[in-house]
């Protein structure tokens, strides 16, 4: 059967893409699956210690400045606190990853470079970067420092990942929460770079690194100021027995007296669309991969990441303990999700609801 010129072109392009990916790694020679690392958030020293004490293999943290994407007041580490945290973790055989994952602003690049220098000097086990200029700086200035491509870098395919490895020597990439299990497996088979995926916590409806909703409303975003829906712009107003939540004057949600009032982020607000009030973009719910942990292990995910540096130490301790038990059981033939695990994680979820998000798309 003869192929049309268009079909032949498409086939050639697909073949070239496959060859480009496969040329970057010898995926057929991969080692047998091993248990993934459990990577947990730490917004302060207390949370770091609870994560380590409850079984985290590594924690990720940030400095008290706009170089990290969780730059909230009262959050993150002073130099002294971070030095103590690194010592606490490393003395117990665990690791500390430092997030420097916002994009350097014009005229202020030295601030971001200084954070990279400081992380290297403090003995960080890895740094998370998204900005290509900063990746280039870190690779040239600190060749022994492990570089992880942050989720803010929005790398969703093997071409992007292998390019970052070739250019900057990255050792790991954090995948955005938009890929199915089959898509993640395809990436893993076609790159030698370690793959880190989110396993629990709040969802981001956009491809991370590309959302500008917060900038639209407040002039500040995670990529520029390290914060989504900054607290300085949040207002709560009681009106007619209900609670209105506003972000820089924009009405994000309205809660009845008996409802739990969530933090007002634009993507998770309720809006009037065609005469109906509902969550137009995304419901406030949390990702929970307990049901697919064996699959994540089988396909070779290297690290399971918990979202929530802005959450309390109690959250960190409970989630870490639960996921530690689940990951340790994930290679057993009789693995099942224990009701006790679900109860704990549901309690810690947004709206006490959970989802598999993009990991499960029966229609795809």
Low-confidence stretches: 1-19
- Structural class by SSE content: alpha/beta
**What is the level 1 CATH name of the largest domain?**
Alpha Beta
CATH evolutionary superfamily of the largest domain: Copper homeostasis (CutC) domain
Q: How confident overall, as mean pLDDT? A: 88
Order of helices and strands: HEHEHEHEHEHEHEHEEEEEEHEHHE
Largest sheet: 8 strands, parallel, barrel
Using the coordinates shown, work out and report the CATH topology of the largest domain: TIM Barrel
User: What amount of the residues lies in strands?
Assistant: 15-25%
Radius of gyration: 21 Å
Compute the number of structural domains: 2
Strand order of the largest sheet: 1-2-3-4-5-6-7-14
Number of helices, where a helix is a run of at least 4 consecutive DSSP H or I residues: 11
Helix content range: 25-40%
Overall form: globular
* CATH architecture tag of the largest domain: Alpha-Beta Barrel
- Alpha-carbon distance between the termini? 29 Å
């Amino acid at each position: 059967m003869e192929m049309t010129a268009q079909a032949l072109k498409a086939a050639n392009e697909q073949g070239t893409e496959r060859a480009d990916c496969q040329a970057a790694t010898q995926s057929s020679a991969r080692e047998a699956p091993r248990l993934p690392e459990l990577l947990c958030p730490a917004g302060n020293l207390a949370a770091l210690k609870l994560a380590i004490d409850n079984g985290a293999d590594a924690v990720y943290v940030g400095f008290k400045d706009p170089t990290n994407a969780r730059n909230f007041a009262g959050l993150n580490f002073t130099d002294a606190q971070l030095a103590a945290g690194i010592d606490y973790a490393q003395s117990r055989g665990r690791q500390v990853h430092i997030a420097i994952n916002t994009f350097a602003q014009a005229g202020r690049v030295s601030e971001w470079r200084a954070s990279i220098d400081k992380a290297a000097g403090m003995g960080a086990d890895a740094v998370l970067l998204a900005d290509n200029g900063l990746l280039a700086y870190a690779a040239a200035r600190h060749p022994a420092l492990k570089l992880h491509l942050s989720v803010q870098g929005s790398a969703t395919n093997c071409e992007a990942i292998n390019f970052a490895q070739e250019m900057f020597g990255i050792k790991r990439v954090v995948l955005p929460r938009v890929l199915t299990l089959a898509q993640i497996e395809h990436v893993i088979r076609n790159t030698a770079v370690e793959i880190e995926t989110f396993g629990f916590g709040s969802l981001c409806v956009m491809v991370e690194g590309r959302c500008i909703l917060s900038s639209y409303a407040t002039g500040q975003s995670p990529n520029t100021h390290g914060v989504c829906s900054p607290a300085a712009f949040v207002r709560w107003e009681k009106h007619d027995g209900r609670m209105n939540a506003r972000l820089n004057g924009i009405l994000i949600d309205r809660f009845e007296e008996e409802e739990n009032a969530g933090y007002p982020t634009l993507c998770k607000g309720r809006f009037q669309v065609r005469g109906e009030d509902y969550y137009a973009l995304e419901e406030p719910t949390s990702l929970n991969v307990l049901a697919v942990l064996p699959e994540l292990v089988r396909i070779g995910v290297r690290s399971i990441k918990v979202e929530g540096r802005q959450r309390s130490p109690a959250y960190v301790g409970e989630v870490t303990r639960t996921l530690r038990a689940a990951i340790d059981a994930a290679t057993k033939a009789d693995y099942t999700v224990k009701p006790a695990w679900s109860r704990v994680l549901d309690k810690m979820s947004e709206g006490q609801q959970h989802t598999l998000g993009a990991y499960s798309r029966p229609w795809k």
